[in-house]
Amino acid sequence: MNINQTASSNTEGVHSGGKTYHCGALTYTKFGLAALFAWLLWGDFCYTMMEAVVPSIVPLKLKALNCPNWMMGMILTTIPGVLGIFVGPWVSFKSDRYRSKWGRRIPFIIWTLPFLCISLALLGWSDSIAGFLQGNSTFLRQFAPATVTIAVIALFLAMFQFFNAFVNSVFWYLFNDIVPPQFLARFLGIFRIVGTGAGALYNYFIFQYAETNMREIFTGAAMLYFVGFGIVCFMVKEGEYPPVEGETCKDNRKTGGLKVFFKESFTNKFYWIIFLFSIFQSAGTSSIGAFMVFYLVDMGLSLNQIGKMNAIGGIAGLLAMYFAAIFIDRWHPIRVLTYSCVFSVLGYVMGLVWLFVTLPSNFFFWLCLGGGLILVFQSALLGGCYMPFYMRVFPQSRFGQFCSAMSMIRTLVCIGTGMLAGLFIDLMKYLHNGSDFAYRYIFLWFSVGSVIYTIFIIIAYREWYRLGGDARFHPPAPWDPKGVEEMPIVPTVGPQSRWLDVTFKLFNAIMYLSVFLIPVLMCWMYYKHAMVAFAWHAFLLLPLSLAAWIYWKIIERGIRRDIASARNNEPLRNGIPHHGVLIITAIKFLLALGIWICQVLMAVNLNMESGAIVFTAANLITNFMLVGSVQLLCRIERGFSVKIDQKPLETA
Question: Which residue range(s) make up the domain with 357?
């Protein structure tokens, strides 16, 4: 059934008592919503298969042609970056304000679809086209065949990236326009699952033929995208959009549109805080993330082990993503993001332990694999809340404009931070006489970066509360006479005392085991004659573990006191943290105690007494930081989180 028909016929379902879901002017029955999801996910499959081809095959082709590295970098990264900075904001700005019977996003995809597919197919035939041009041009004969082929590839790739920038600029925005807001996180979770699965199919079945069947792969990808994605554009319906508030067509002509873009995007404090969070989040992780493989190799892992570890983690992540998305919808993306960022600092700091210890590669492989599986649900929770977060805090009428504004400045900044990250690694290499040990310092970069972007998301979270929070938040909109753009309020679940009680029990278990497992480990040390490690654990680490437990009991008592005050409608001393991310974090750290035990036992067996001391000290530092993070979250909630056991808010 055509989504147009489904969406338009759902009014009858409302009158007949059937459950319906709304997004702007669109109304869906359960069947209509399922059909919408099916078509969008099919579009994602075609889009992912098309997107996977270029970055995986073109570098191999350029290297086979002996293309210089600097030129390869310019062709593959600089040109797309420049196009992203200039084309993306323009397309986003125009699509927000475009009105047609086909909607405001789909026309930009349809118009560029033939040109994108033609340029993609031509990339596969670059060899033949270059040979034809050189055979019929006296001027081109003076150049080497490889040089002409590289130039042809660069031309077709630039064409492809130009038209693809239109799709990249509006495809994600379409979801915010047609998917009911209470299902956004769940849809995006399934969306990521389908995209990951499509990428896996491509890598497993097709990539092996990249060098021998380049023409067939590029031509097939172009045909799949043209037919498959083209059908999606006809089957999916956008609703009717209200006129653009506070602007006329004359305002957006010539340089007027540029002025409106910058005035609306960069003059509000709340949006600037979000932009800064996004900038530092990208600079603190993406800019240095490419070096992670070199760190793993320095730790002794083979590429085969790294591939297996990533594959297993990816499969586990797919299973976790949908369920994580349900909680993101229920707890609100900005809350999940803020809490997750606070706790993510601990994970990066824990990585610094490898500056002091090196374990056998096979043991390190299983350690990493186990740690990755323990982290998988929280990683899915964090990774799945970014886009729903932006969809909930940016104005829906100008969602594309604000996303492109954020992307533009983030891209400009990350060009510089990427070079700084490389210089940082080079400096560490110089200090370590050129050793690859320098790659272990990426966790220092991660730690500092995570602290900075966490500060900004905390500020944004507090500002979101001041602007109305769960019950009354509407995005600031200076172009609207009301000063805000009214958007649907999605029901969320606030702090629940029974789940907080479960959280307290989990945290107590972490602290209890951290204390009472030390004497058990000391018995093993005594048996193995590791007396230095024994003494450190007895006279320093065990007393400090007790101190961490006492610290937790003080924080727990304060939260319980505030819960009692909230029930009696009395003022709170701090605030009540939300139970959601706390439970998941507590489970993760409880399971991670097993990793700590294995680390200490292995270090003692290998006569690495200093390693055993470092591993227990790292666990101790983590416990202090874990309790400190809960205390910080209480302070963040102070003045806003004053209710307990409230029922989910009704949609406004």
Answer: 254-492
